[in-house]
Specification:
Function: Exhibits a very high intrinsic GTPase hydrolysis rate. Involved in the addition of a carboxymethylaminomethyl (cmnm) group at the wobble position (U34) of certain tRNAs, forming tRNA-cmnm(5)s(2)U34.
Order of helices and strands: EEHEEEHEHHHHHHEHEEHEEEHHHH
Strand order of the largest sheet: 3-4-5-2-1-6
Family: Belongs to the TRAFAC class TrmE-Era-EngA-EngB-Septin-like GTPase superfamily. TrmE GTPase family.
EC number: 3.6.-.-
Subunit structure: Homodimer. Heterotetramer of two MnmE and two MnmG subunits.
Enzyme class: hydrolase
Number of strands: 12
Number of domains: 3
Length: 431
């Protein structure tokens, strides 16, 4: 039985293009009754997967002259019969065609319903479906590449490979349970334990790799330092516009100011913070408290140091940057900048690019990208730990089975009907 079998055979439709003024709007439809709906609009079905210019008619009236694509299943996005109508994008045209589709028995699609049906028909697994949503939402080159890699099944192949190895381990364990008196060679037990350890180590290393989540969500870069050291000026220079107020008065910035910035294809969130110092001012003290909070949450910290300050107290995670080198030069082995003259800014960008690239480099196994993936792998590792420590063969077998099921829920290889609405509810209409 297919755990994703659909109980709703109705034809669904939605715009696949965004709202707003445009030349063309694409209306897509899917469902077992698509052929009869399209015949009613066009008079006859076009040749499969070949664009055809047709007059769309309903109740004897021509609604539009459109390019039509007939997409019979199972070789379609959803695996069902479907079609696309490339309409003129006037709101009146779109509304008229939508009303006609409704009259013919179709209904508007819910968010993510096309991709949900693709999963139900086995055209995609859950990891690939989530990647489609990430691909639609991608804003940077790194996000696009990562989503496309996952949509092509890289992460699915990794998790399916682990699940297959767990099946073999479980088969060996079942042999030890079912044939305790057959004097099976000791190599069976040794091989089983070695493979369990190898899987545990690979999954644990995967959990430690946060490249995918950083790439998908973006990195947080916090600019910290003492008051009037030039933090707001640096934010404005890097972002390319005057996002923060800059004055000669210390303590001008009272709250965190955040701007989005793309560096070498990676999305960054630059945060300017209040200057760190002791103060009696209640508002400034709250700004400093928020600054310290952002510093703790940061992926990268640019700590600006004034001409008269020392860098001895900085942690190894902070990037020390001497500010205002037009007044006093930076010491050896320290980055230095001047927002007044522009000196050192290109070197800072290059250093920051190198740091960000090292944190998000797409090398080796594909990284996990969502909290759901992390929770599933963590559950699989937990059951593997319990299996390795189990003294009874039956308990070990059950823990191995639970570990395999945790991996299966990530891709949808087991019954995950309860996950579908939560996952696909995040999609846009028409996808």
């Amino acid at each position: 039985m297919n755990p994703f079998s659909s109980s709703d055979p109705q034809v669904i439709f939605a715009l696949a293009t965004g709202a707003g003024r445009a030349a063309i709007a694409i209306m897509r439809a899917s469902g077992p009754g698509s052929a009869s709906v399209l015949q009613s609009l066009c008079g006859s079905l076009p040749e499969p997967r070949r664009a055809s210019l047709r007059s769309l008619r309903h109740q004897g009236e021509v609604m539009d002259h459109a390019v039509v694509l007939w997409l019979p299943g199972p070789k379609s996005y959803t695996g069902e019969d479907g079609f696309e109508l490339h309409l003129h994008a006037g709101p009146a045209v779109i509304a008229c065609v939508a009303d006609a589709l409704t009259d013919l028995g179709a209904r508007p699609a819910e968010p993510g319903e096309f991709t949900k049906r693709a999963v139900q028909k086995g055209r995609l697994d859950l990891l690939q479906a989530e990647a489609i949503a990430d691909l639609v939402d991608s804003e940077t080159e790194s996000q696009r590449k990562q989503a496309l890699q996952q949509a092509d099944g890289a992460l699915s192949r990794l998790y399916d490979g682990w699940a297959q190895r767990l099946r073999l381990v479980l088969a060996h364990q079942e042999a030890l349970i079912d044939f305790p008196d057959e004097d099976l060679p000791p190599e069976v037990e040794h091989t089983l334990l070695a493979e369990m350890l190898a899987l545990h180590n690979e999954m644990s290393a995967h959990l430690q790799d946060n490249r995918g989540e950083l790439m998908r969500q973006g990195l947080t870069v916090v600019i910290a330092g003492s008051p009037n050291v030039g933090k707001s000026s640096l934010l404005n220079v890097l972002s390319g516009y005057d996002a923060a107020i800059v004055t000669h008065r210390a303590g001008t910035t009272r709250d965190a100011i955040a701007v989005d910035w793309v560096l070498d294809g990676v999305r960054l969130r630059l945060i300017d913070t209040a200057g760190l110092r002791e103060t009696e001012d209640e508002i400034e003290a709250e700004g400093i408290r928020r600054a310290l909070f952002h510093v703790k949450q940061a992926d990268v910290i640019l700590h600006l140091i004034g001409p008269d300050e020392a860098a001895d107290a900085l942690s190894s995670d902070e990037i020390a940057v001497r500010a205002k080198i037009d007044i006093a030069p930076a010491p050896p082995n320290m980055l230095g900048i001047s927002t007044q003259t522009g000196e050192g800014l290109s070197e800072l960008r290059a250093f920051l690019t190198q740091r960000v690239s090292a944190m998000t480099a797409n090398a080796g196994a594909p990284p996990l990208t969502r909290a759901r993936h992390r929770a599933g792998i963590q559950e699989a590792v937990t059951h593997l730990d319990l299996a390795r420590g189990a003294t009874w063969p039956e308990l070990r077998g059950e823990e191995l089975r639970l570990s395999m099921q945790a991996l299966g829920r990530l891709t949808g290889r087991v019954d995950v009907e309860s996950l579908l609405d939560a996952i696909f509810g995040q999609f846009c209409i028409g996808k």
